[in-house]
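hey so i finally got around to running both of the ones u sent me last week. sorry it took forever, my laptop kept dying halfway thru and i had to restart like 3 times lol. anyway pasting them below in the order u listed, first the sequence line then the structure token line for each. didnt double check formatting much so if smth looks off just lmk and ill redo it

first one:
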Amino acid sequence: MTRSISSIALFCGSNAGLGDTYTLAARALGREIGRRGITLVYGGTHKGLMGVVADAVLAAGGRAHGVITQRLAGLGHLHPALTLSEIVPTLRQRQERMAALADAFIAMPGGIGTLEEFMEAWTMNQLGELDKPAGLYDVAGYYQPFIGFIDHMIAQEFLPRAHRDGIVVSPDPSALLDGLAQFERVTVPKWL
């Protein structure tokens, strides 16, 4: 089964990270999203990796839909060249709107906000509230310590082993997008 993915919610850093590794990877992902005609749905800023991905999507002829909070827009963080922008009152409303707009989710390297947004999407899939695949863009092994922690959850019997396959993990943008399109939802109950 191949899923039709016309939009992807991207969670990533509003900082660029150390060196140029993450910036180069953000451009590569943005180019691939734009090349495939997938709409980027993201936090709406021009800052950090978020801005880099949006710029790359737009440069590749794609569409970028920003959903930003009033506070951040008021601070001048709204990307000025997006295909579509929405300003919402709160972070919670931003997350809900992004989830509603997206057919899939990707987390790039980022901080605690990135991880929180990704975990919410994965949890909603695990509980059957969503059927939208989620993936980690594992740039330079960034998410390997996190995957190790997931494996620890499994070893300690807080997560069924099958749920390890509840996300797609790849360092390659094309393989990641292909994996999301081919994803089959894990239907094993979360309870051991």
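and the second one:
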Amino acid sequence: MLATMTIDGEYGPSTWEWVADQVARYEESGGTEANTLRDTGIPIIVFTTVGHKSGLVRKVPLMRVEHDGHYALVASKGGAPAHPGWYHNLMADNTIMMQDGPEPWSTTIRVVEGDEREVWWDRAVGVFPTYAEYKEKTDRQIPVFVTEVAKP
């Protein structure tokens, strides 16, 4: 049986209004609305973590990269030179809530390396080819996290 937990505390929505709106609509509808990246038709998931500095609950929509019930979280930040803020949250605490549909579930994540990373990277690019462009824009290796617990 899957152990469930919640991430409680004060919610700190994204400072990007469209992201905060998407997360709100996604959660309010149980994942039936706002479940794609804007008008691309590419499905998204939402994960919840805690800010490593602020202590605020943070919710992040990302491309839905799934395989056998496990999910990749690609820390691309559009190919920027620095990792996204949520990367540091995951490095500080690898316990998250994942949501792909109506109900979130708890899981831990880990950074994948080597051949495993390449397999997951290829899956991610297959879902969102723009990741390949992001890789070309930055000197950093874009981190890829994978959920440990499969979707129930």
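quick thing i noticed on the 2nd:
The beta strands are 44-50, 57-63, 65-67, 70-74, 95-99, 104-111, 144-147.
anyway thats it, ttyl
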